[in-house]
Amino acid sequence: MPYHRSGDASAQADKLSGIVEESDLYEGFAPHVETSEIKTLDFYNQPKPSGKEPALRSYTEIQQLLQQGKKRDVKNILRENSWPINSPIRAQLWPMLCGQHLTKQQMLDGFYWEMVHQVFGTTELSEKPIMLPAFVDATHCLPYHLTSTGRAVADRIVNVLGYDCPDITYSPVLYPITSILLHFMSEEEAYMCLAGLVGSKEKVFINQTKLQHEVTWKTVMQIAKKHTKSAISYFQRICPGLKLERVFMDWCWWILAGLPFQHLVRIMDCYFHEGIKVLYRVALVVLNLFHKECQSNNEWSPDNIKNDIGNALIKFCKKIPVSPAKLLHAAFSIRGLSTQYISRIFIKTEMLLKSRSVLNSGSKQLIKSRSSDNLPTSQSQVNIQMMSHTLTIREKLHSESCRNLGEKSPGHRAIAMGVYPIHNLKSQVCKNEDLFTLWSWLPVRITMYQPVLLYTTEEHGCSLTTFYVRVEQHEPTLLMIKTCNNEVFGAYCSSRWFERNVKDDKGQRQAYFGTGETFLFSLYPERAKYPWVGIEGDKDLGHSSELFMAADSKMITIGGGEGQAIWMDENIRFGKTDGCKTFNNPPLCPSGDFEIRVLEVYGFVGI
């Protein structure tokens, strides 16, 4: 069995540093590393800067800051402290950084070795090669400086992770990250680190599906078009027929397969805390540096690179002319690359790809074009009529409940005929028959668009900040809540949640926003729709009957006037529901107070 450390942190560091026989040069590496291949010399023999350098921060200092919740301070320390590649600090630092993202606390005591025994029938390391999971990219199983034993350990970790996380279907970077971790820690610790990265709810570290992988490289491409315009223009000028997609599909390999190991290790110091956005920034610097070298170094002349810019980028990274410290300094000096900005690009790209996937699925394709007033074109209406015979078994079962509701709208007929595939939705909140009922209540023009899941507490965590990042720019949105008592209710919100920030003529934020198209609904235990009271044309409505939506950093509210129809806290965990004047509704759950099990928010593609 590969070595396993136990005891307190300092004892672990002492044990790790004591495994080396030759010298202290490689004290920071684990036993399954071929240390003779690792270069720890000064970068390109550049002279050390003069003057007294500030002391490097210790593991204990960083640990205390993390325990105090001072993540920003930790971020700055990780960016600024260039620990040597052989520093023992990573044996403790990396597990701590990855551990803060860990959600499966039950894994902490012997979980990994139990899983190993389940998968392989023994905890002894097999001498025979292990077949790797299908999600691994066989062409990029990068071992770096691992020995043959180290590689076998990496194979086993990836297999166990695949067994424990069956939702991982495509993750080419997972194996290289595993290999990097194993340079500084035991097998069990490396697995725990990966479990934290894969299971993180707040930040993205490792893509786990082909869709996520594609969205990521296309996001990098979109960001590069804005932040490295000169480089992109240069590549397109020397290669008129160049498709940027072919270059950016391999963006992660510029870093993971191209950069020297000492650069990679310093990048990981920051990546394990901040997430994939660190790699985005490094990729942009690589592009800018490559462009600069192309103009001054004959090795990278247009004739030498125009036939394969992607491969030339990786070769350039192997000889990158800046130190790890300068690379990171340049990466973190890029302005206008906030987490919110990256998230907006990512979500927009994700929605586009999902909508294309939906439109391309199924045996019959519909006309996508819409008239300027958001109603279907005449050709689309003809398609609806021609497909009236395509009721599925599920929709037939639902037809009785539709008749009971007396719903005759064109929108509902389109749903029943399977023209707009809401049956493809996999809601964790309500059943399929409830979805059909809910769709029958939507405005007719909205039923013509493909719904896309924007936010769910199951995948994106319980944070109002994350909710706003993923949802606030979309209009309209559909909120569905399932409580811990299994009540299901929600609201159709007609306006963007971003309007909470809009100011009036006096420079003050408006308390409430939205329109009379907003409505409430309940699906369980009772089915009911609660539209705006003003929809009936009552002329005596006061201000209290027009309180549709309100939000700030601490809560969101839907419906007001002598009560709040739906109120949720900043952690999206607890809420309450009252009757209100805006919708003339009863409380949407019997107790009034509720605990949220799942919240899902949907947007609509193409609006």
TrEMBL record:
SMART domains: TBC, TLDc. Keywords: Cytoplasmic vesicle, Membrane, Synapse. One of its GO terms (cellular component) is endomembrane system. Pfam families: RabGAP-TBC (PF00566), TLD (PF07534). The keyword Membrane applies. Residues 428-605 form the TLDc domain. Residues 84-275 form the Rab-GAP TBC domain. PROSITE patterns: TBC_RABGAP, TLDC. This is GTPase-activating protein skywalker. It comes from Drosophila madeirensis.
